[in-house]
Prior knowledge:
This protein is mainly alpha-helical. The protein has a domain at 29-54. The protein has 3 helices and no strands. α1 crosses α2 (27-54). It is elongated, with a radius of gyration of 25 Å.
Amino acid sequence: MRNVTITLEEEVALWVRIEAAKQETSVSRLVGEMLRELMQTGAAYEEARRQFFSVAPQPLGASGAPLPSREEVHDRASFR
Protein backbone atom coordinates (compact mmCIF):
# COMPACT_ATOMS: atom_id res chain seq x y z
CA MET A 1 0.00 0.00 0.00
CA ARG A 2 1.10 3.54 -0.70
CA ASN A 3 0.20 6.77 1.02
CA VAL A 4 -0.98 9.50 -1.34
CA THR A 5 -1.86 13.10 -0.53
CA ILE A 6 -4.83 14.56 -2.41
CA THR A 7 -6.30 18.04 -2.45
CA LEU A 8 -10.09 18.36 -2.33
CA GLU A 9 -12.49 21.25 -2.48
CA GLU A 10 -14.15 21.87 0.88
CA GLU A 11 -17.54 20.67 -0.37
CA VAL A 12 -16.02 17.41 -1.68
CA ALA A 13 -14.03 16.85 1.52
CA LEU A 14 -17.18 17.27 3.63
CA TRP A 15 -19.13 14.89 1.40
CA VAL A 16 -16.45 12.19 1.50
CA ARG A 17 -16.17 12.42 5.30
CA ILE A 18 -19.92 11.99 5.65
CA GLU A 19 -19.98 9.06 3.16
CA ALA A 20 -17.11 7.35 4.96
CA ALA A 21 -18.91 7.75 8.30
CA LYS A 22 -22.14 6.32 6.83
CA GLN A 23 -20.21 3.27 5.63
CA GLU A 24 -18.24 3.04 8.88
CA THR A 25 -14.90 3.27 7.11
CA SER A 26 -12.10 5.78 6.73
CA VAL A 27 -11.88 8.43 4.04
CA SER A 28 -8.69 6.79 2.83
CA ARG A 29 -10.31 3.36 2.43
CA LEU A 30 -13.43 4.83 0.80
CA VAL A 31 -11.43 6.80 -1.76
CA GLY A 32 -9.23 3.78 -2.41
CA GLU A 33 -12.28 1.57 -3.03
CA MET A 34 -13.83 4.19 -5.33
CA LEU A 35 -10.64 4.39 -7.36
CA ARG A 36 -10.40 0.58 -7.55
CA GLU A 37 -13.99 0.41 -8.88
CA LEU A 38 -13.18 3.07 -11.46
CA MET A 39 -10.08 1.14 -12.52
CA GLN A 40 -12.01 -2.15 -12.82
CA THR A 41 -14.82 -0.51 -14.77
CA GLY A 42 -12.31 0.94 -17.22
CA ALA A 43 -10.57 -2.41 -17.59
CA ALA A 44 -13.89 -4.20 -18.20
CA TYR A 45 -14.86 -1.62 -20.82
CA GLU A 46 -11.55 -1.98 -22.61
CA GLU A 47 -11.86 -5.78 -22.62
CA ALA A 48 -15.40 -5.58 -24.07
CA ARG A 49 -14.21 -3.06 -26.66
CA ARG A 50 -11.29 -5.32 -27.62
CA GLN A 51 -13.59 -8.32 -27.99
CA PHE A 52 -16.07 -6.33 -30.09
CA PHE A 53 -13.41 -5.14 -32.53
CA SER A 54 -11.73 -8.56 -32.71
CA VAL A 55 -14.67 -9.88 -34.76
CA ALA A 56 -14.59 -8.97 -38.44
CA PRO A 57 -17.72 -7.14 -39.62
CA GLN A 58 -20.00 -9.03 -41.98
CA PRO A 59 -22.14 -7.24 -44.52
CA LEU A 60 -25.89 -7.72 -44.44
CA GLY A 61 -27.11 -10.36 -46.81
CA ALA A 62 -23.73 -12.09 -46.98
CA SER A 63 -25.37 -15.47 -46.41
CA GLY A 64 -27.20 -15.21 -49.73
CA ALA A 65 -30.61 -14.81 -48.11
CA PRO A 66 -32.60 -11.79 -49.31
CA LEU A 67 -32.80 -8.81 -47.00
CA PRO A 68 -36.17 -8.19 -45.32
CA SER A 69 -38.51 -5.74 -46.98
CA ARG A 70 -39.25 -2.34 -45.50
CA GLU A 71 -42.67 -3.58 -44.43
CA GLU A 72 -41.16 -6.56 -42.62
CA VAL A 73 -38.63 -4.40 -40.82
CA HIS A 74 -41.22 -1.87 -39.68
CA ASP A 75 -44.02 -4.33 -38.87
CA ARG A 76 -44.86 -3.56 -35.23
CA ALA A 77 -47.46 -6.32 -35.02
CA SER A 78 -44.68 -8.87 -34.61
CA PHE A 79 -43.68 -7.14 -31.33
CA ARG A 80 -47.11 -7.58 -29.75
